[in-house]
Every structure is written in structure tokens, then in C-alpha cells.
Amino acid sequence: METKTKFGNSEGPSRVDGRMKVTGRAKYSAEYSVKGVTYGVLVGSTIAKGTIKTIDTKKAEGAPGVLSVITYLNAPKIPGYQTDAPQPKGALKIFYDNQVYFNGQPIALVVADSFERALFAASLVSATYDKGEHQTNLKANIANGTAPRNGKDYIRGQEDAYKTAPIKIEQEYIIPTEVHNPMELHAIIARWDADDKITVYDKTQGVKSTQRSIAQAFKLPPENVQVTAPFVGGAFGAALRTWPHEIAAVLAAKVVKQPVKLVLSRADMFTSVGYRPHTWQKIGLGATADGKLVGITHEAAGQTSAYEDFTEGVVNISQLMYACPNVNTKYKIVSLNVNTPAPMRGPGEATGAFALESALDELSYAVNIDPIELRVLNYAETDPSSSRPYSSKFLKDAYQLGADKIGWSNRKQQPGSVTESGWLTGYGMGGGLFGAYRGAATVTARMMADGTLILQTAVTDIGPGTGTAMVNIASELMGVPAANIRFDMGDSSLPPSPTQGGSQVTSTVGSAVNDACKELKDKFMQLNGTNEGGSLDFVKILKDHNLPQLEVTTSSKGGAEQGKYAMFSWSVHFMKVLVNPVTGVVKIDKAVSVADCGHVVSPKTARSQIIGGSIMGTGMALMEEAVIDHRYGRLVNNNFGDYHVPVNADIPQVEALFVNKPDPYINPMGAKGMGEIATIGVAAAIANAVYNATGKRVRDLPITPDKLI
Ligand code: MOS
């Protein structure tokens, strides 16, 4: 399956909510109109470590329209936060005490009757501090890294076997901090409906998990917390958890006894909702002269905050990706005066793949073997970490599809040997994997007398097109046109569904939709006294039995097959780049991404998801870097003027291709996930193409022009 144009049509139904989104009828959390709403603006600390000595809120309190200025001094106790000790390690407890752990940490929340008045009053809040000596520099603190709790060093075969191999690559790779920065700012409107009952319109990837967090913090029965998030304007992992600003808004609404809307500023987005952590890696690769891997050693150290351990699977990919008898990995976290990171699309694996797939490329030159051939030589036919068979793996097909599409045969192995119109020209590839999961979900399927099929479950859609995919699955099963199916989602009062994340929603919720539709169909067949489900006239059957509707609620989860097989989605990305020999500017000339993600249930949205992942990987490779001035421990480019992300002009035609062979075991659709693999491996593909074009190996991202001239 493929398409020719950048924004052209591909097969399959269009987004069910596309029209609502482009016409502005889709409501995002800050857009709900709530009676009597007030506005909250956060004030951040201006030091990175220490204690608040004094905090002056007088001027702000006297400013026009101000209802309250909340600080640790006057904040009502949050029942779920209370301990007798200083803040325990874990999520930052807002307004808990006078401790400052990072620069920009919220120290006050101003609530006023308009956003502008709140913003102005926030500028009047000032604090003095007892400053501690902060640490924000990962490189300077790597030696202080510690193995995370429950984190174990991994060893298979012999340790550091690469060191004695005939061919040896040993290099360090660095990725900077990258910030999710979805287009929609994180926002919440909190409204107490009674003393023990609250409604929030909140940007979240999981309405049920947000419901649980707020219920825990305020000691409420979960069902007394209503979380509404039918539309989410991107998240990429930043909205996987409940952050302090959400708790602050709920608290503030209690204080001012009116609903409070709190929208983070773009600058807040850099310090309040996580990021992909600055990570150092070292890879040792050993191989025979004919390119067979003998040993892989992968070490990594990623930053975390001073108050919470954040871990991700940076080194896992080296345990899983290739057939190699000797593999050892080590992963450390380094506690710094920064806010806590968060999973960001392809968490861990995207970081690890940059190092591993760059190193493989380096090896391909050392042994003078084509990079694809080298990967095929070391292809894992069974999972090397567990020896279990794969549920499905068609990565070789993906290599072939991508190589053909990018024109890999035009690539020259000799770096810097090809120019096009004066630009150095190179080809590169890099791939990855991500676990293919299936969790538990419950779906209600209801057939109405007019033939409308309503599906309901709590899951959110952060952009990949979950509603569209679910409608597709139901449409095929029930023989009901997509236009007659409504998918209700993003509401905590609906049947439980997982948080949208980890590339598992299509698999998990899709299976529940599948099972619910089957059960509903069975019910119709029973009513009708037939065992033939092919041509059921639902409207007629309901009418015949004088029923206004018929519904089922079905729970569904993965089974024993998940223990029997190693389940992964696979990707490979190909890039053709042009590098200006004078300015060092890198232009992506052509990008091809191929996914082995099982059966593609929603081709159009799948394609756009892969394109989005490729663009995100391009930002990672060429532009994105959150820079801290270590003198102050403060970000210097916390805005879109200085923090560069790819724009339309940076992105060429991106081809998204799919092997599209069903996985026989994972779920009834045969669909594996694709959200993460869309980004995993992209940055390496670009770095490898840049090397092929220039002979310059850049191992610290982003590949900015200064590194190439
Ligand atoms: Mo994603 S990092 O699974 O939201």
C-alpha cells in the first residue's frame, strides 16, 4: 500500500472526526465554556535548587480582579499528599513545602477573573531564596549515576565480548533533551460540582488514570471525579500522567469556590510536563571480518529529576534487535535539578536506536558491507533475549520495500563521493522495534432503532485516529456503513479503556470493539433465530421485536499467546539527504518509512501516523535541543523561536509503506502497534545518510550545520 503525493488520498475511510477538527467544532479542554470560570496562571521559581525564604504575594493579591494567590504557605492541605516528613520521593507535590528542586518549579498560582489579569498579577509575585548548589549538567554528573530501583544489568553470553572481536567499534552517542511540545498546550478546567464531586476538562492521554490520580490526591471515590477529554491536540507521552498543574487547578477551584481554567504557557510546556531526557550512551560492537556480530555492549545514562526516578528502556533494543551471542547492557539514571522527564514517542527505544543503528552503520563501513546486507546477516529469526518465536516478523520485506522506494541502488558506499547540483548526497537507513501489546478494555456496543451503531469506551485519541480505526473495525464486522457508526470516547464515565500510549490502543480497544460487535451480532441472531450472521437487518429485527435498541458491554484482553510468542512491531527508515558543502545545511531530499505492524486496520490514519513519526525523528536528528544555561540551571530556549522543530519546508515527500501482513496471534485483527516505531530509528537513518554524504559522523544530536563545516 502506498501513495504518491504528500497530502493525497490513500485507500480506506477518512478520519471520522476530520471535519470537526478542521472546522473548529472539535472542542479541546481549554475550549469548554464553563459558567463562572476563573483563570489561573502559575509562577515559577527562578532558582534551580534551594528553599523559598520569603514569598511576597501582597501586590498580586491587590491587583485588579485577583481572587487568590496560592502558595505553600496558604494552600489547603491536599489529603492524598499528607505525610509528616518532607516531600517523599515521587511525583512533585505542588505547594507542599518551601523546597525548590528545579528552575521553573511552580511556587504560586494566581487566580483572577480574567486571564490577562491573572497573568499581570503573576508578574507581581516575588520570592527570595536560600540558594543551594544546583546540578543540571548531565555530562559533569555521569559518575554520580545510579542503577534505577529494580533495574538490573543485562548479560547474555560473555561480557564485553566486542573487545576481543576481529572488528571493533566503540563510540559514544548523545541525545539532548527534547520536549514533546504538542501543538495544543496542556490545559485543564476544574469545577467542583459538590464538596466531594468534581468535573475536569483536561488534556490527558488517559481519562481513567487522571480520574484515579485526582481521586487519590483529594481522597474522593473515583466515580466522583468526571474527566472529559474527547479531543486531544497531540501529546506524544507528555499527557500520560497527571502533573502538578492539574492538581493545582483542582485545588484552586476549591479555594476560590469557582471553576478554574489553567492553560500552560509554551514556556511552561518545557518545565511542567516532561521531555525526552538528555542521555549519554556508549556502544561497543564486535564482529567478524565478514560482518557477523560477536558482541554488543550498550551503556546508557539518562537524566532524571532530584525528586523522582524516571527510567526508560534505552538499552533494551541492543538486547532484542539482532542475533548476537554476547550482549551486555547497563543503564543508569542521573539525578539533576531538572523537572522529571516523561516517555516521549518511542520512549527509550528511540534514544537507544540512535546509538545502536548509528553503530551498525559505522560497522558497515568498517567491514565494507552494505548496511542493509549487514542487518540481514545478523537478522534475528527468534527473539534473542527469550529464544521465543516471534508472533510475526516481516522486517526483511520491510527492508526490501524501503530500499526499492528510496532508490538504494543509487547509493555509493564511499562517503562523500556523490554530489547533486553541488550538494553532497547520501543515503542512510536505520530501524527499530517496539513491543506489540494487548491490554484490557471494555466496550459497549448499542444498535439503535434507526440503524445507528454506537460504540462507547473511555479511551482518548491523541491524534492517531483511534475513532476512525475503531469505526473501521466495527463497520467491517457489522456490515454497517462507517457513516452510521458513532464512537464515543474520552470520558471517564464510559466503560474502562487503557491510556493511549505504548502503541497498544488499536490492539487493545480494537479487540474489545471486535468482541463487542461479535457479541451484539450473536444477540441479534438469537433474536432472529438464525445462525447466519451475514445479512442481518438490524433495524427490522429491532422493529419485529418492538425494541428501541439492543446493546452489549464486553470486556476483552490478551491471553496465553502473549507468553508463548515474542511480539514486536518493526520499522525501517530510509533517508536521502543533501548537505551543502559550504554552509553545512542538511536537506532531507526523500524519506521512506516502512512498518511491519501487522494488518493495517485504518490505512489513511496509519499513513499519517507514520509520516508524523518520521517528522518527529527528523526534529530529533536535525533541530531539537532544549539548552540549559548551567550557571543558572535555567532553560534558555523555552519558546518556539529558539527551540526548533521541523516546519513544512523542512520536510520532503515522506513515503509511508506497510508490509501489511497480519500477525496471527496478537489479536483478532492481526494488528500490531505503530505509534512508536514511526519514530524509532529515524534519527539514525538521517545521521547515517549525513555520513554517507559527507564522511562526517555526528554522534551528538542534533546535527546542526556547525558540526558539518
Ligand atoms: Mo507514548 S510515549 O506511548 O504516549
Keywords, please?
single chain; binds dioxothiomolybdenum(VI) ion; 5-stranded mixed beta sheet; Aldehyde Oxidoreductase, domain 4; 3 domains; globular; 7-stranded mixed beta sheet; alpha+beta; disordered N terminus; 709 residues
Give your account of this protein's structure.
With 709 residues, the protein is of the alpha+beta class. Helices cover 24% and strands 24% of the residues. A 7-stranded mixed sheet has the order 3-5-1-12-9-10-11. Helix 9 (349-366) runs parallel beside helix 17 (682-694). It is globular. Dioxothiomolybdenum(VI) ion (MOS) is lined by residues 205, 236-237, 240, 343-345, 347, 501-502.
Spell out the blueprint of helices and strands.
Elements: H1 18-22, E1 38-44, E2 50-56, H2 58-62, E3 66-70, E4 99-100, E5 106-112, H3 115-122, E6 126-131, H4 138-141, E7 154-156, E8 167-175, E9 187-194, E10 197-202, H5 207-217, E11 225-228, H6 244-256, E12 260-263, H7 266-269, E13 279-287, E14 293-304, H8 316-320, E15 326-335, H9 349-366, H10 371-377, H11 395-406, E16 419-420, E17 423-435, E18 441-448, E19 453-456, H12 466-478, E20 485-488, H13 505-528, H14 538-544, E21 549-556, H15 561-564, E22 568-579, E23 586-596, H16 603-622, E24 628-629, E25 634-635, E26 654-658, H17 682-694
Helix pairs in contact: 9-17, 12-13, 16-17
The protein binds dioxothiomolybdenum(VI) ion.
Dioxothiomolybdenum(VI) ion (MOS) binds at residues 205, 236-237, 240, 343-345, 347, 501-502.
